Amino acid sequence: MFAGIRKLMPGHTLELTEGEPRIERYWDLTTEVDPDARPREYYVKEYRELLEGAVSSHLMSDVPLGVFLSGGLDSSAVAALTTKIRGERIQTFSVGYGEEAFSELGYAREVAGHIGSEHYEVRMSRQEFFDSLPRLIWHEDEPIAWPSSVSLYFVARLARERVTVVLTGEGSDETLAGYTRYAWTLLNSQMDGVYRSIAPDVLRRLVRRALQGGPLTASLYRKLQHTFLARDGNSWPSFYFDNLFSAFAASEQSGLLTPEALAAAGDAYAGSMNAWERSRGDLLHRLLYTDINSYLIELLMKQDQMSMAASIESRVPFLDHVLVEFTARIPAQYSIEGMAGKFILKRAVQDLLPRSIVYRRKMGFPTPWEYWLAGPQLDDLERMLLEPRSTERRLFRSDVVKRIFAEHRAKVRDHGNRIWRLVNLEVWQRVMIDGEPVEAAAAHLSSSKPVAVG
After folding, report:
1. Does residue 329 carry a pLDDT above 70?
2. Taking residues 273-281, what's their average pLDDT?
3. What is the DSSP letter of 62?
4. Average pLDDT of 98-118?
5. How do beta strands 22-25 and 12-15 pair?
6. Are the C-beta atoms of residues 372 and 230 closer than 8 Å to each other?
7. Where are the domains of the chain?
């Protein structure tokens, strides 16, 4: 995001003597599955022992320590093991929203009651969310990729009132195939192979083109866009990264960006594809390796930056390197059942937690972003993105931005994720490049607050 500034990637060292810095990788995850698969219960037992050891090692602290508790399986497992190891009442912290449909506070309370923790929670309002966004972008140094980063800051700020260190549940999804996208990609890949064997290339292209412009509802369009019918199975960037990660597909750059921005644009998938090309083994383990070396880096930066913004240290026992190396050996058939994953972890901790928590449907730290966009907030964000100050940056074509908002407002397409990315980039420009005070940047996000002029 800044000229002349680079990140030192995880697992690397940088040595500076004379001349250019020397960067070397000192650790990488091997993806060699056990050649002779043992029974699933072996991996369950071994994983439980290693996880318990990892949590125990992360509990070493001379200062007060607590656990972030979302009510999902991962954080609940960490909280339950912390309680078991310490043999005393621990402190847990949760965050939610006034909009109950987007809040997991009820699940967190259920777990807190089950393990007997001293539980604290905070609720965020829409106004607090938007008021804090520019300051958190300043802390992040970059546009914030996921709305859940804001929630994370609020729960970190709550925890800092009572503890200095927290344990979190980050990392199990990327090491144990917890996201639905893994099971979906395996299924999509199988169906794509059959589809390509019976449908000629010209017919497949016609189907993809018809899906792009067809009279579909926003919901049906979104679902079909994730299938082999709308994706080119011969192009892995399209089949996986465009499909399940990107707000804007790489193929849409030429329509979205101005000529000046297009000329300067690089390959957004270079880092991810580099990890994909280095990966080995079956499709699932290649997906996990790629995400650990790309997507997980972003999540951990969010975890670190948002917790440190509240002056609290967060620790991630699921990413203890011995534990992660063990997960890479687990055969794929033991991780996923149907469209659900993480079965090794579920079996490993089912004696510690209610079944309703262990096997409930994953929500993934939800945020009422889509709900908020259904109200007047959408007009405020469109107004900000189409101000002369924004359009004069010559990054995006104004007509395309207008179309995105019009389609979203008419419910023809769901562009919530795209609007989030555009807004974040513009706020980042104002705070980090223009030097605008965060309070002034926040005022532009909501018409309910006066905007300072001059």
Report:
1. yes
2. 91
3. S
4. 91
5. antiparallel
6. no
7. 40-178+294-358, 180-288, 369-443
Here the tokens at position 417 are 């994720």
Which pair of structure tokens corresponds to residue 59? 């509990």
Mean pLDDT along residues 151-159: 96
pTM assigned to the model:
0.90
Q: In 3D, which of 118, 121, 127, 84 has the Cα closest to residue 105?
A: 121
Integer Cα distance of 127 and 322 in angstroms:
43
Q: Give the CA distances from residue 148 to residues 232, 336, 356, 413, in Å, rounded to whole numbers and listed in that order.
A: 31, 26, 24, 23
What distances in angstroms separate CA 57 from CA 47, 85, 108, 307, 360, one per listed residue?
15, 10, 24, 20, 28
What pLDDT was estimated at residue 77? 97
268: burial class by Cβ within 10 Å (0-12, 13-18, 19+)?
middle
- Residue 199 token pair: 């449908």
Contacts with 442 (C-beta within 8 Å, 6 or more apart), sequence order: 130, 131, 132, 133, 134, 135, 449
* Per-residue pLDDT tens over the stretch 204-246: 888 888 877 667 777 777 788 788 888 877 888 888 888 888 8
Buried b / exposed e along 152-179 (16+ C-beta atoms within 10 A):
bbbbbbbbbeebebbbbbbbbbbbbbbb
DSSP string, 204-268: HHHHHHHHHHS---HHHHHHHHTSTTTS-TT-HIIIIIIHHT-SS-GGGHHHHB-HHHHHH---T
**Two tokens, residue 277:** 């090309």
Fold of 40-178+294-358: Rossmann fold (3.40.50)
